[in-house]
Amino acid sequence: MSTKDIPIFGSIIGFLDGEDIDYGIVAFLIGLFIIFFVFNKVGLPQSQIVSILFALAPIWLPIMSFLAFFKIYMDMVGKKFGINSGRTVMEIVLPPEVFKSPEAMEYVFTQIYNAASPDNLMETYLDGKRPLPYTFELVSRGGDVHFYITTPNKFVPSLTDNMYAQYPGVEIKKLDLDYTAEIPKNLKGLSFMCFHIGKKKGSELPIKTYIDFGLDKLPKEEEKLDPMTPMLEVLANIQPHQQLWVQFICIAHREKSFKNGQLRSKGTWEKDVSAKIDEIMMRDPKTKTGMADLDGMPRITTGERDTIEAMERNVGKAAFNFACRVVYISNKNERDYDGGLFARISRMVSQTELKDRNGLGIRWRTDFNYNFISDPFFKKRPALKKAELKEYKTRKLYTKARSMSYKIMTAEEMATIFHLPGTVAITPTLNRVTSTRSDAPSNLPIGNLPI
Question: Which of 170, 331, 351, 379 could bridge 241 with an S-S bond, Cβ 3.0-4.6 Å?
């Protein structure tokens, strides 16, 4: 039973959570009120209640202190591991033509999956070994669109090898200076807005993928319905004084255990998918039997069957903890708030939505529905914006609300929203290699040529 199932209290928590209002203090005060109310009902005066709480401090204080210290310590060693691993920023220049389906990018995601399983507890609790994030980024400066990838240093050869293998003619350039360095961390003279995009429903339900768009069957270029084109058009049609950054963060999904650095064990998402399928088919999860019609077949609709097939197809593929951050930046001397652009941002991933399944949408933003409650002194929003910029630059995500947490996305789902598009994407500002180039064969007998 979750806190939202508790009468009255659960409704309050659900409302505050839905509006992204910090309810930690509210929950603490309500809990404190309940404790005093219960003890008063049994006839204890308030002085004795306080005395009891202090008397029990040797029990609850060490537990709370250990839990707080454990999280802080694990975050600290994890940061050390990430810093020691380093990070490389690379720009991808698209080939003149891409004839492959997004399945090629799915192969790349599958090949770079690395759970970073520790060999012993020393690697977990002293070295801080854990899966490190890859980021795949789309950046538009005044409509000029670029593709970037960032990766831990030791994984650069693996990533580039797989990209060259799947996309002949692609050009990958290592950047000496990160493009985000041009934006000052204090955002002086700039307007800034950040959105987080994620799955609208649970992770076990897949979005509409490139297979549902028929791209796995390799239709003719002019017949393709590429799910990336709406996003590319939004990026290409911003004003000269505006910038739009899209960052996809993916970290290998793995089980939680003490060996992996968690106090509570939890398996991978396959069990959640199996439970959801049982729920749709209305069957007992132990016996796998349920309601049946006269022919003995389960009563499921065509839509439910398609959903189950998509879930079973996805669950067998590499899974990542996925998050998406969209950053809008503009010069304050110009029009610094573009409501029309924000509406287009909210719809640029809507093509991935199926009613009976899942979809992507804006789940959090650096703004509040009730500013007078969440930010009465106008200090929280500026702090959130600076924090989001810092996290974008460091390729991190620290959840500030439940709605912006990581969701599970498979390689198939990720390849749907990030792949190298073909000429069906006619965006004129999309950077491509100007001509097909290849190196000379390595076995040419140059040393034996006559002088």
Answer: 331
